[in-house]
User: What shape does this take?
Amino acid sequence: MSLDPVTGGGTAERTLQLSREMARIGIKTVILTTNIGLMEKYKKNTENMEVVALPCLCKRFYFPKFSRRTIKNLMAEADIVHLMGHWTFINALAYKTARQLNKPYVVCPAGALPVYGRSKVLKNFYNFMIGREIIKNANGHIAIATNELEHFKEYGIDAGKVTLIPNGVNVDDFSQSSENDFRNRYHLGDSPFILFMGRLNLIKGPDLLMKAFSNVKDKLPGYHLVFAGPDGGMLTELKNMVLQFSLERRVHFVGYLGSDEKIGSYRAAKLLVIPSRQEAMSIVVLEAGISGTPVLLTDQCGFNDIGFVDGGLIVSASVDSIQKGLLDILGDDVKLRKMGENLKSYVQNNFTWKIAVGKYLLLYNAILKQ
Assistant: This one.
């Protein structure tokens, strides 16, 4: 629905990284999207790919102005169609056209299948009209985390028919950046800080982290809390909480961070916290990991591997559990650094986009042979 990293979030990032790696190894890749946020400064991320950006008539629901002939011509040239996300008119349009042309297609909802958050009535209507049909008839079903297997099951898809292909990270993108530049820009000095990276909305749980930090602020003297990410409807509420808990000097809202600043924030942070109430595997956990930063995340994120490799800590999505986790993980600097090293090694060996694309090509080729 959007390639803008601000409005499109993890889905936009995944689409760009996946397509970029495919283009790098010589696979022609065409991205169909809307023109929301497709500014010049982001177009450098789409080199060697073709991007067809439809004018958006309604930004609230990403409803595009489209030509059936254009869509049909794009589909006719493709060997396989890959649908990202779920709740979009573009997916419905692409699905109908693919079926008309008898083109195989795969679906990768990336955590979007549950009816959660705003617009529940509209989402149920979408599923009734076409959403469930899209999932049911797909030639391939892709989960980016194990917790998505249950999501597919609710749509009538057996776990045995789902291919698990986790998110990835491009190691070269994280080879250079200065943590001092980030600290200086946001006046953090030498203070250790906890980082939240993501949209400030209910499903991401920033309020849970804020309350947990407030409860342990006296036990973590000197620590600051940095919220990095665009407003998703909770910024005002979170700022009011800062005043309520007397955290004006220790909590910082830095907004959306571009690539260099984002990398600098990971390198500078003591710990990344992902307090999500519901999420498939987050790309930010890999970005932090490749930067050597340990992670505390909830058991709703579909990435319990962190606990198995001692790269961080898994907690439940509650204030009490998060605050206990903060005290446990930040109590030993030597252990904390070791966790960061463990996570970095694990991500490097298992979660690059090169590895992910290899798995995609196996799936695509298996479908095309059928």
